[in-house]
Amino acid sequence: MVEIYPRVLVNGYGVIGKRVADAVLRQPDMKLVGIADVVADWRVKLAAARGLPVYASLPERASEMARRGLRVEGTLEELLRSGAVDVVVDCAPAGIGAKNRGLYERYGVKAVFQGGEKHEVAGVSFVAQRNYQEALERQFVRVVSCNTTAICRVVGAIHERIGVKKARVVIFRRAVDVWESSRTGIMNTAVPELRVPSHHGPDARTVVKDLNIVTMAAKGSHNLYHLHMAMLETRSRAGVDDILRVLDEEPRVIFVSGEDGVDGLNAVFELSRDLGRPRGDLYEIPIWRESVTVSQEGDEVYLMWATPNESNVVPENIDAIRALTGLEREARASISKTDKYLGVIKRVY
Predict the structure, then answer these.
(1) What distances in angstroms separate CA 85 from CA 50, 51, 80, 89, 109, one per listed residue?
(2) Looking at residue 152, what is its pLDDT?
């Protein structure tokens, strides 16, 4: 009996795209048919050197990519027209995915969009633990941003198990991705996002629809992850042990401790590299255990966590592929499979 797996193309081989492509390669129930991009930079050339078929996302870029020494197998549209793709994971820069949607519609291809696109582009925003069923066998789904994913994992878990009456989350964002640090970013300052709420709270409500949440954000002059500080008013009384138990049972959430020297984002970043993951990626949300505090009345919870902006959405993209294609009908089954092949953990040491 011949097994047929979903054929996946990653369109956009940047920070997220290259990680998603590698994650697809590690899953036994899907096949990566190639990547697409508009440039022939070192990242795309490395992909080609590894044997990944490369396509031009735009027809007019194919000749320039070839001129730069890259073997181009054809264009994205030609590949879609051939019927050789079942799912496109669109990791193009923010706003480009919305433009690409018409192309995917034209050829009846399913697509996973990223958090840089608006919710309306797909109609379903996705975090596997919270709303897997909503994405089952849809044509399009949007994996929300790294910050929104973290909120939905951490706050969403407490909301499901204990109930959150009101959530207030402050986000201290990294200013720039590591690879772009030579091109842009801020230095020796912090820049507040003056709109309150920041976009992260409303975005979280596209996934956890009954969550009462307000977020505030600022950019700091660093490039090592984001820092979240949350204040939650719960619907029922809870103790620290109750909160720790909920988070300990939540997939893709781990605990770290300042007592062990994990006392800042730099330490979390170094820890993620010492885990031996590809690119030092951290798929889990690390919560500082000693930050988990409950008010004397038992109706307010305070906690802090780091958000690995380059990698924490990678497992969600894999689960989204399974949901769209119906490979797995239940969230836990997909999450378990994804985490097994990515090496996601619940205990750091």
Answers:
(1) 20, 18, 6, 11, 7
(2) 98
The residues near 104 (Cβ < 8 Å, ≥ 6 apart) are 80, 88, 90, 110, 111, 139, 140
Which regions of the chain carry the CATH code 3.40.50.720?
7-144+313-342
Q: Catalytic site residues?
A: 146
d(CA 306, CA 327): 31
Question: Tokens for 43?
Answer: 């990242």
Alpha carbon 8 to its chain centroid, in Å, reads 17
- Are the C-beta atoms of residues 290 and 258 closer than 8 Å to each other? yes
CA distance to 19, 98, 220, 287, 343, per residue, from 346 (Å): 21, 35, 29, 12, 10
pLDDT 10s digits, 99-157: 999 999 999 999 999 999 999 999 999 999 999 999 999 999 999 999 999 999 999 99
In the CATH scheme, what is the homologous superfamily, with its name and number, of domain 146-307?
A: Dihydrodipicolinate Reductase; domain 2 (3.30.360.10)
Exposure string for 111-149, b = 16+ CB within 10 A, e = fewer = bbbbbbbbbebbebbbbbbbbbeebbebbbbbbbbbbbb
Count CB atoms within 10 A of the CB of residue 259. Answer: 10
- Domain(s) labelled CATH 3.30.360.10 in the chain stretch across 146-307
CATH code for the structural domain at 7-144+313-342 = 3.40.50.720
Token output for 21: 């492509």
Does the pLDDT value for residue 179 go beyond 90?
Answer: no
Two tokens at 152? Answer: 């939905």
